[in-house]
Specification:
With 153 residues, this protein is α/β, with parallel strands linked by helices. The chain has helices spanning 26-41, 45-58, 111-127, 132-137, 140-150, and strands at 12-15, 62-64, 67-68, 71-74, 81-93, 96-107.
Length: 153
C-alpha cells in the first residue's frame, strides 16, 4: 500500500471469509465492511466508515440480481481497494436480498477509477456465466484471484 501520497492504480482485493451476519441493516453492514477494510489496509477507520455511510445515505447501492456495491471516494487513500463479502441466504439491503456485496473505495482525485471498477463488477456479475449460487459459493482464494485479474486499472 502506498503511504507517501503517490497514487497507485493497483487495486487491492480481499474476500471476507465469513458470511455476512444476518439480521443487520445495510447501514450496519456498510459500517462493518468499512471497519474491516480499514483493518486490512491500515487506513483511517473513521474516514472509511463515514465516507462509505455518507455515500450510502444518498441512494441505495443495491443494483439487483443479489448485488450491492457500496462505494466511496476517499481523500486519504492513494490506491483503490475492493472488499467482497457474501451471504448464502442474502442480507436485507433496503428490502432486497443482497448475496454479493462489494465495498469499493478509490482515491477522491480518481473518479474515473471509481466508475471503471463499478462497471467491471457489474459486467462480471451479468456476463460471467456463473449463477448467483456459484458466485456466492466460490472459494475465497478463487474469487480473490478472479477479481484481481478483472479489476486491474
Amino acid at each position: 500500500m502506498m503511504s507517501d501520497g503517490e497514487l497507485s492504480n493497483e487495486t487491492l482485493v480481499w474476500v471476507r471469509e465469513e458470511e455476512l451476519p444476518a439480521g443487520q441493516s445495510h447501514v450496519e453492514l456498510v459500517r462493518l465492511l468499512a471497519d474491516e477494510l480499514a483493518g486490512l489496509t491500515g487506513w483511517r477507520k473513521r474516514t472509511l466508515v463515514n465516507t462509505a455511510l455518507d455515500r450510502e445515505a444518498q441512494d441505495s447501492t443495491y443494483l439487483g440480481y443479489g448485488l450491492a456495491i457500496p462505494h466511496a471516494r476517499v481523500f486519504e487513500i492513494s490506491q483503490p481497494a475492493v472488499y467482497i463479502a457474501r451471504s448464502t441466504a442474502g442480507v436485507d439491503w433496503q428490502g432486497c436480498p443482497a448475496r454479493l456485496v462489494f465495498l469499493v473505495v478509490v482515491p477522491e482525485e480518481c473518479p474515473e477509477w471509481h466508475l471503471q471498477l463499478l462497471s467491471r463488477i457489474v459486467r462480471w456479475r451479468q456476463k460471467s456465466g456463473l449463477t448467483e449460487d456459484e458466485m456466492v459459493a466460490m472459494p475465497a482464494a478463487e474469487l480473490t484471484a478472479a477479481m484481481r485479474k478483472l479489476l486491474v486499472l
